[in-house]
Write the structure tokens for this entry.
Amino acid sequence: MAGKLAKLLSDLKEQEALAFVDKALGEGVDAMELLGDTKEAMNIVGQRFASEEYFIPDLVFSGEILKGIIKKLEPHLKKGEEEERLGKVIIGTVAGDIHDIGKDLVAFMLDVNGFEVLDLGIDVPVQKFVDTVKETGTKVVGLSGFLTLAFDSMKDTVDAIEAAGLRNDVKIMIGGGQMDEQVRDFTGADAYGKDAMAAVKLAQGWIGG
Amino acid sequence: MEKKWEEMSVDEKQEAQFQKLLTPKDPEGNDLKFQSPEADANYKARINRIKDAVQLKKTPDRVPVTILPSMFPYLNAGMTIEEAMYDYDKCTAAFKKFILEFKPDINIGASGPGPGKFYEVLDYKLYSWPGHGVAPEHSYQCNEGEYMKAEEYDLLITDPSFYFRNFYLPRVFGALEGFTMLPPLTNILEMYGVAFNFIPYALPPVQGAYKALFEAGAEALKWAMAMGGSDVELKSLGFPNILGGFTKAPFDVIGDTLRGTRGIMVDMYRQPDKLLKAMEALVPIMIGMGISASQQTGNPQIFMPLHKGADGFLSDEQFKKFYWPTFKAVMVGLIEGGCIPFPALEGHWESRLKVIKDIPKGKTIWMVDQTDMAKAKETLGKNACLVGNVPSSMLGLATPDDVKTYCKKLIDTASKGGGFIMSNGAFFDKAKPENVKAMVDFTKEYGVYK
């Protein structure tokens, strides 16, 4: 039976996937095993997104189906069974900018690829990034922004991390609307990623996984 | 004898629109008095330059140049965006300074910041703006949400105006909460029973909503007078604005502010037929929105900001099924109404070029952001005028020499045979003035057709 749920979810068959989970749980299948299948499915979704077989609607819908499945599995999962995560990534839309679509997609892709994502939200003050890096000892920070005004906020954030003496401990990536290599150079970040998969690859390169 | 508007062909309508632009009037309806013979000549030369670039029948005298800013004119004048939104005189003064400093061939007017007080009166929730969720020096930004619920498609399809008034407006304007109590206007039929329809107007929440509307209307008018005055003044100095209004592609209408990005994408799977039907219902409404704005302002160019059709947002098949048919129908309707659709390809649209090139020739202007200009010219550019695509990062961070090098390459690539207007590629707030100046001045010098 293993693999069936992975196929239904990765093929975006919502009704069939949910019905399958109900039936499997009724038959006494271990919820952890089903959770493992969803992980496999999301890996397939990620690969299809990377190879341009899937696009943003498919990614969003896979997330919706996953949410529905997890809701069914949750009562059956024992505490402490959470899987090991690869490492922490802090992500947020920089000060003054409240756009979240791109940031949310990056957070989602990092999450399904095994990273623990600390999403600081939108319009994140410079100091909040600094404090969170300090508190968590994370190795990777993702700065998102859509507006040209975000160029300065990104630079301020990188500078503040530097001033706090943390710059050598973290890798910083930027992305969003008008960002490119020129903006990366201006901000002092380590890398610019053009889409959610680029962010995953950067994090994998820095953290492993 | 002159033909009536309804009897004109599409070509004749467009020609008539340009003739109207070439003989501008003042607000009283008399011929506009230019401030100098030079301004008069510049104005006409600029309109003709744009006309040639749009129509693709002959090359203009030189590559036209425009600047399509978001909040740059106001930041560049040293004010906050909050000031530009709340002080209409300061706003128009900054815009005049911007035009006189850079001297673009056409401009889009000073209406970008909009009337801050108006949004306040209506308690607008769809956006955050300076003092209301963002800092004074930052621009207004949309608050994404599901302002239309997944189960409300039938209501929208059956009677869009009723849906907007009773459901959408009360959700995005706090002050219009009372509108949820109003009955449909189509209930008003004959003497018997007619009075029942008017009872809700006696209720305090409804009266409160109307009081807010009167106040908001007065504020909007005050702002519009300032904008109109600015437009006439700049025209008299030789600087035309041909922007007549805006409308949207139906997929973006639903995906931006009704269902939101997540909502519409889930609907593509869970209820595709309803989504398609709703977009079809919006086609005549979006055409009407553009045409009525054009009639009100007297300008033919209708802006269409395009969002969720960009590369990556949809697969080719999804684009062809969900985005393109109703978007194209809106453009064709606008063209038939004598308008010049002005869609903005925000982000990358390379994969869409082979689809969107299928439009009536010489009737549209496309703002190109990060799409490869050479590829755009070979495809879409055969049928349409392209405007763009100097990157925001370059205007903000590079040097004037970098900008000139980029513009030279751009002119060499995109200006062949006409059909190209030099501009930035995406609306921007911050830039180095010397870079913006380099873009304009270099084009005027290097872009002369020989």
